[in-house]
Amino acid sequence: MQQRISKMLLEIGAVFLSPDKPFTWASGIKSPVYCDNRLVLTAPKVRDEVEKGLAELIKIHFSQVEVLMGTATAGIAHAAIAASILNLPVGYVRSSSKGHGRGNQIEGRIEKGQKAVVVEDLISTASSCIDVVETLRNADVQVLGVVSIFTYGMKKGLENLQKANITNYSLSNFDTLIQVAANEGFIEPSDTYRLLKFRENPSDESWIKQV
Question: Mean pLDDT across the stretch 205-210?
Answer without folding.
Answer: 82
